[in-house]
Amino acid sequence: MSLRSLFYTKYIFKRCLLYIWYKRYVKDNPVIQADIHQCLKVRGSKQIKQPLNKQFNHLMIHYPDYAYVFFWRINKLNMLWRSIFVDTRSCKIFRSTKIAGGMMCYHPFATVINAKSIGKNFQFRNGLTIGNKGNDNSKLPVIGDNVTVGANAVIIGDITIGNQVVIGAGSVVVKDVPPYSIVAGNPAKIIKRLDEN
Known about the structure:
CATH class of the largest domain: Mainly Beta
CATH topology of the largest domain: UDP N-Acetylglucosamine Acyltransferase, domain 1
Shape: elongated
InterPro entries: Hexapep, Hexapep_transf_CS, LbH_SAT, Trimer_LpxA-like_sf
Strand order of the largest sheet: 3-6-9-12-14-15
Oligomer: single chain
Number of helices: 4
Strand content: 15-25%
Number of strands: 15
Organism: Corallibacter vietnamensis
Radius of gyration: 18 Å
Distance between the termini: 66 Å
Protein name: Serine acetyltransferase
Keywords: Acyltransferase, Repeat, Transferase
CATH architecture of the largest domain: 3 Solenoid
Structural class: alpha/beta
Largest sheet: 6 strands, mixed
Order of helices and strands: HHHHEEEEEEEEEEEEEEE
Family: Belongs to the transferase hexapeptide repeat family.
């Protein structure tokens, strides 16, 4: 088999898988659709004007970070064909964590997410740790809508992060954060309020 025909066979195989997955997991799933929309919107992709199936195909083929989120959503992180869409990633999102639609990660390396719940349009970068305090899973964070977290941030304990919060890179958050805040530092402190003029 020539290199060209091998490439073509792999291309057709990928497209067939994407067609099946679109019909089975995406077409009637508003949470996955929200992930797709948010990922394209934040990246400023022109694909956002395409039909949903083309948006899904584009993200699965060109964005392994999105593909990771997709396989997590369908609870198939160990799927046989996953490796042709996702690079090896060191990321763990606990199945008990409830995450609304619109989740997006830029580089999920070295990330552990163990929260009670996370609202819609959650964005994060590499090195994020969200977890319990004292190895007690009753003491987990609750994170609101439209929260963006920078690289290497830590969010620990029975705390609440409000809506529209930005957590700066390297921050250590161990206390509640009110809505419409930008926090940074160790320990994290409010450095700006987004609802004040």
